[in-house]
Amino acid sequence: MPSAEHPMPQQLRVQLGVLDSESVAALLDCEPTTVQTRAVVGDLPGVKIGRSWIFPVAALLQRLNELALENLQRRERAKPVAVAGAVPPVPRSRRSVLPACLTKPAGE
């Protein structure tokens, strides 16, 4: 059985649909301690087992979608009146491709 001394192999985590703090941190471009703190306060759906946190991918993606929609609604409420002829800047994402841990292997 995996433990802090013998972590679950990445491939098995992906097959089971869970991520560890480090994988979630890589996805979100932040530190693992930030992920763990957000899980403790309930912002991210995680389960602490022993010394390790695990995050179900489906629940994590659902929560990220909820947060994105909340942010969108907040921005729309605060949106200034459009100026005729003005073209708003297009935000550019720093991450253009999903990490391999979130993509399904070919053939599934």
Q: Which features does this protein show?
A:
single chain; mainly alpha; 108 residues
Structural commentary:
This protein is mostly helical. The chain has a domain at 10-77: Arc Repressor Mutant, subunit A (Orthogonal Bundle). It has four helices and three strands, in the order αβααββα. It has helices spanning 10-16, 21-28, 32-40, 57-77; strands at residues 18-20, 47-49, 52-56. A three-stranded antiparallel beta sheet has the order 1-3-2. The mean pLDDT is 80.
Largest sheet: 3 strands, antiparallel
What is the count of β-strands?
Answer: 3
Helix and strand sequence: HEHHEEH
Kindly report the average pLDDT value: 80
- Count up the helices: 4
Could you tell me how far the N terminus lies from the C terminus, measured between alpha carbons in angstroms?
Answer: 27 Å
Are there runs of 5+ residues with pLDDT below 50, and where?
A: none
| Beta-strand proportion | 5-15%
Q: In what order do the strands lie side by side in the largest sheet?
A: 1-3-2
| Shape annotation | elongated
In the CATH hierarchy, the third-tier topology of the domain at 10-77 is known as Arc Repressor Mutant, subunit A
Radius of gyration computed on alpha carbons? 18 Å
